[in-house]
Amino acid sequence: MQTLSPCSPPRSAACGFTLVEVLVALAAMALLTLLSWQGIDALMRTREITHPRVDQVALMQSSLRQWQMDLDAIQTFPDLLPEGSLFWDGRVMRVLRRSATPTASGADGGVHVVAWTLREGHWWRWQSAGLQTRAQVRQAWQAAAQWGHNPVHETRRQETRLAPAQHWQLFYYRGNTWTHPQSNSEPSQRTPDAVRIVLQLQSSAADPNPPALSLDWVNPAFNPNRT
């Protein structure tokens, strides 16, 4: 009777792989592993680069929203502030705005004095407590100016650090033209028809020459047909 050898065709599956086949398979798996790790490393590097940028953009968006909210809520009181309820002194922008939050008893929250300035490579915002009297408004108005020019520990408790920036400019739209806020030929207490802010963002290794960011706020009371 004829016997079958261990590696005869009917039982070839039981013979396993040759050494060459095993080495080729190991080399292929090693190559795939190397390529996958390179892909993961590139993904992580991209995330490290883009994540701070995404956070910066989100912070800038929230800062600009707050800027617009302050301007939307401007509260004018004739003869209360000689400079008017919106005043730029070349370094600090001060705004007298309505409070958006009622008191604990449900009464009107009064008004706030808010101020904006650029310091230490960031945009900063300061806000007073709720004000109910004319004397409180005048006192907070002066405190906001002091904070913007010479901040002390007491006034810095009410500040918030916002988006990074290295320079900013303001322009008012008055008399159908954009002018510098301090070149005003109109009554100083009148709120301008529009306010333009131009922010120069901070440079970085990824973006050494960032573009300037410009945003216009239009006074709801502005009538382009007014003569």
Would you kindly provide a written description of the structure presented here, covering whatever features stand out?
It is elongated, with a radius of gyration of 32 Å. A hairpin with a 4-residue loop joins strand 1 and strand 2 (93-98). The strands form 2 sheets. A 5-stranded antiparallel sheet has the order 1-2-3-4-5, with helices on both faces. The chain has one domain. The mean pLDDT is 82. It contains 3 helices and 9 strands. With 227 residues, it is of the alpha+beta class.
Strand order of the largest sheet: 1-2-3-4-5
Estimate the global geometry from the Cα principal axes.
Answer: elongated
Structural class by helix and strand composition: alpha+beta
Instruction: Outline the biggest β-sheet.
Output: 5 strands, antiparallel
Q: Count up the domains.
A: 1
Question: What is the alpha-carbon Rg in Å?
Answer: 32 Å
Q: Name the beta content range.
A: 15-25%
Overall pLDDT level: 82
Q: Which regions are unreliable across 5 or more consecutive residues at pLDDT < 50?
A: none
Q: Provide the succession of SSEs.
A: HEEEEHHEEEEE
N-to-C CA distance: 120 Å
Oligomer state of the chains in this structure: single chain
Total number of beta strands: 9
Summed up, the helix count is 3
Give the helix proportion (percent range).
25-40%
List keywords for this structure.
4-stranded antiparallel sheet; alpha+beta; 3 helices; 5-stranded antiparallel sheet
